[in-house]
Amino acid sequence: MEQKPESYWKKKLTPSQFKVLREANTEMPGTGNLLHNKETGIYTCAGCGSELFSSATKFDSGSGWPSFYDALENNIELHEDTSEGMQRIEVRCRTCGGHLGHLFDDGPLPSGQRYCINSAALQFKQTIDPSPLKKKRAGLSSRKKRRS
Ligand SMILES: [Zn+2]
Question: If you write DSSP's letter for every residue of 79-131 in order, what string do you get?
Fold first, then answer.
């Protein structure tokens, strides 16, 4: 995990992004600008740009926060969170440690999971294919061809 001082994040992030990512606040439900986003693409970390969620797994949970039933798991970290008198699983960005939201087990099939994520912690990158990770791998293998 990259260790960046608070001053770095204060400069880089907007006040609402800072509150969520660095202070683990939760934005007001229904206020996020990505809540009703239905475009095809990838949701990245607003702190470091790491790819976190695919539009293919986004669903309308009615909670007021962007919800996903799956994550790009190599790029997130789960932590036990007992704050506010609740037992929850916190979802953080593995790269920068930024707080993203919480994980619940009342999501739709196939995973039954619900990643309840603050819109302020995310940025959206529009793509044609909602699974760029697979694409990248295909790109790598084609690059292996000899150039001679
Ligand atoms: Zn991050």
Answer: EEE-GGG--EEEEEETTT--EEEEEES---TTT--EEEE-GGGEEEEE-SSS-
pLDDT in tens, 79-131: 999 988 999 999 999 999 999 999 999 999 889 999 999 999 999 999 887 66
Average pLDDT over residues 132-138: 47
Catalytic residues: 116
Q: Which domains does the chain show, CATH number per domain?
A: 6-127 (2.170.150.20)
- 98 Cα: distance to centroid of ligand 1 (angstroms): 5
Neighbours of ion ligand 1 (CB under 5 A): 45, 47-48, 50, 93, 95-96, 98
- Residue 95 Cα to ligand 1 middle (Å): 5
